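Encode chain A's predicted structure.
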Amino acid sequence: MDDGFDEYVQAGLGRWSRVAYLLTGDHHAAEDLLQNALLKLALSWRKASIDAPDAYLRKILYHEHVSRWRRSHHLRNEHLSERMPEQGSGHDLAADAIRRILLRQALEKLTRKQRAVIVLRYFEDLSEPDAAEALGVSIGTVKSQQSRALARLREVAPELHVLVKEPRGARA
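Encoded structure for chain A:
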């Protein structure tokens, strides 16, 4: 079955682990989410590897994430972990830790859909159309969820403005 699947997974595992963590806010949930997504990707690897495996995996991850939310409805019971997976050797570890804590606390206050849009637009730097495609929603939904999420973040964590850069395709 391999045909490059193992190499693909090894090359992107760190990045996809971080994406899953940012979506779930929990190491164990992120591992489960990524494992399920990779299993689904493996089952469709021949088709995905011909097309665009990153886009295929991204779509699986976000759809699985939203599906889990719909099944569980335990949004208020989420508890985010204190550490990000595979932390880099940042230049200022104390400042990095503070930023991670602020970001974790702020993301905790968003809905799953809002969090997914924020991760796609700001962490993965996807355009609005690409984010809409990854989530299987309209561009208008991405725009409205992003607008609500940013308004909520401004309200609950105004100090985060220094961390946010405008994503591709954002209006001036």
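Residues 74-79 have pLDDT under 50 and may be disordered.
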